[in-house]
UniProtKB/TrEMBL annotation:
PANTHER family: NADH DEHYDROGENASE [UBIQUINONE] FLAVOPROTEIN 2, MITOCHONDRIAL, NADH DEHYDROGENASE UBIQUINONE FLAVOPROTEIN 2, MITOCHONDRIAL
Keyword Disulfide bond among UniProt keywords: no
Highest taxon of the lineage: Bacteria
Family: Belongs to the complex I 24 kDa subunit family.
Family annotation (PROSITE patterns): COMPLEX1_24K (PS01099)
Database matches in NCBIfam families: nuoE_fam
UniProt-annotated stretches for the region Disordered: 184-204
Keywords: 2Fe-2S, Iron, Iron-sulfur, Metal-binding
Protein name: Complex I 24 kDa subunit family protein
Names of required cofactors: [2Fe-2S] cluster
Organism: Sphingomonas arantia
Coiled coil: none
Entries under SUPFAM superfamilies matching the protein: Thioredoxin-like
Length: 215
């Protein structure tokens, strides 16, 4: 796709990441993850291990992280899995990044519920800030990706930025979130209109707290 992120040349990637290995802390975490599964079922650990590897790459590059081919190979080998099987997992789930991203990976849901509730305004706020789909801003802060449903339809439109969801967005609230992140602040995740979880907007209109027999 025209807005897909650019995957670096493999020669360049191997030169940078060919010697990838777990840090001491992550090696311990990897052993703990693998130990959750019965002997002979180590393949089941591949998803959390890929996530762990992506986070380690992110820590080393001060970004949200991605999975170069040598890193995928390393994870696959750690659970005795053919590389292609691990690669299939990485390419199936949008939680894994196949190309470098910025410090904040802004994933905007463009599926029907979010589109009907204003995802175009969310994308417009991103564009107004200089973000464009499939690209990282020149300052290295933001990468913008449009993704499919992330299961927050009741609070549409929404975005996921790194590990946090931001919901009930408008052009203004999305602009404020990007501004806060750019300034080194931590915007509050979840609903941006104050609702709890996916409860209806506003106050209760029918169900009230029971006051006792004399109420």
């Amino acid at each position: 796709m025209a807005d897909a992120a650019h995957i670096p040349d493999e020669v360049e990637t191997r030169a940078r990441w060919g010697g990838f290995a777990w840090t001491g802390e992550n090696a311990a975490k990897a052993r703990e993850i693998i130990a959750r599964y019965p002997a002979g079922r180590e393949h089941s650990a591949v998803m959390p291990l890929l996530d762990l590897a992506q986070r380690q790459v992110g820590a080393e590059t001060q970004t949200q992280g991605w999975l170069p081919v040598p890193v995928i190979e390393y994870v696959a080998k750690s659970v005795n899995m053919p590389y292609i099987r691990a690669y299939e997992v990485v390419t199936f789930y949008t939680m894994y990044n196949m190309a470098p991203v910025g410090r904040f990976h802004v994933q905007v849901c463009g599926t029907t519920p979010c589109m009907l509730r204003g995802s175009d305004d969310v994308l417009a706020a991103c564009k107004n800030r200089g973000l464009s789909k499939g690209h990282t801003t020149p300052d290295g802060l933001f990468t913008l990706t449009e993704v499919e449903c992330m299961g927050t339809c009741a609070n549409a439109p929404m975005v996921q930025i790194n590990d946090d969801n931001f919901e009930d967005l408008t052009f203004d609230s999305m602009s404020a979130i990007l501004e806060a992140l750019a300034n080194g602040e931590t915007p509050k995740p979840g609903s941006q209109i104050g609702r709890m979880a996916s409860a209806p907007e506003g106050e209760r209109t029918t169900l009230h707290v029971y006051q006792g027999a004399d109420a």
